[in-house]
Design a protein that fits this description.
By secondary structure, this protein is mainly beta. The protein has helices at residues 15-18, 212-221; strands at residues 7-9, 27-29, 47-49, 67-69, 87-89, 102-104, 107-109, 122-124, 127-129, 147-149, 167-169, 171-172, 191-192. Strands 1-2-3-4-5-7-9 form a seven-stranded parallel beta sheet, with no helix packed on it. The termini are far apart. Helix 1 (15-18) links the parallel strand 1 (7-9) and strand 2. The longest helix has 10 residues, at 212-221.
């Protein structure tokens, strides 16, 4: 049985406070690390539980197998970090950044990621469930054959994304930027498609499945009136 991680609770922490735990791991509970400089640290297997991470700099940090639970970190910066097999649950990282991060087998669950920058990330088997990604920047990300449940992509930048064979459930693509995104054979019946110009480049939707009600809305945007007879 592995030894439990040392625990730090209800403390205000900075770079110097965590240096002794770098590479070894620690369990931080209700700690405040606002604006802390953790650039380049090896924070593998760290556990952040109910911590305040406002504008915390994780730039270039190693966060393999790290766990973030019920944390609040507006504008937290994970740019260039390695988040392989890291988990983020019930977190709020609005307007943060994962620009250029490695997100292999990374999981985001029930989290608020409004306005987050996911541009130029390196991904494989990334997972989002019940997440707000409103106005997030996610160009060129791959969701092929993924089940996307409870995902709000409203107004997100999804240009050049790959949604081929994906299945949407309780999700929204309303007014998202889907320029050059691929939706061939996707099941879109569980997505809000409001504001999308799907017929402008219909080859990108070849084989996609939509409901009768969605088809009526799509045609209505182009001035068609659907009647039963």
């Amino acid at each position: 049985m592995s030894n439990p991680l040392p625990s730090l609770a209800d403390r205000i922490l900075g770079r110097a406070d965590l240096e002794a735990y770098v590479g070894a791991g620690a369990h931080l509970v209700k700690c405040t690390l606002d604006e802390a400089d953790l650039k380049g640290f090896d924070l593998s297997s760290f556990v952040f539980e109910r911590c305040s991470l406002s504008e915390t700099a994780f730039t270039g940090a190693t966060l393999e197998f790290a766990k973030f639970s019920h944390c609040r970190g507006p504008k937290a910066d994970f740019s260039g970090s390695n988040c392989t097999e890291a988990t983020f649950s019930d977190c709020d990282f609005n307007n943060g950044s994962f620009h250029g991060a490695t997100l292999t087998s990374t999981r985001f669950t029930a989290s608020k990621l409004t306005g987050v920058d996911f541009s130029q990330v390196h991904t494989f088997d990334i997972g989002f469930v019940d997440c707000l990604l409103v106005a997030a920047r996610m160009p060129k990300m791959t969701f092929r054959k993924e089940k996307l449940a409870g995902i709000d992509f409203s107004m997100a930048d999804l240009s050049d994304c790959d949604f081929r064979d994906a299945v949407f459930e309780r999700s929204s693509l309303r007014e998202a930027n889907i320029e050059r995104a691929q939706f061939q054979n996707a099941d879109l019946r569980g997505a809000d498609l409001g504001g999308l110009s799907m017929l402008r480049d219909r080859t990108r939707f070849r084989g996609a499945v939509i409901s009768a009600a969605q088809a009526e809305l799509v045609l209505d945007e182009y001035g068609f009136r659907v009647r039963a007879k």
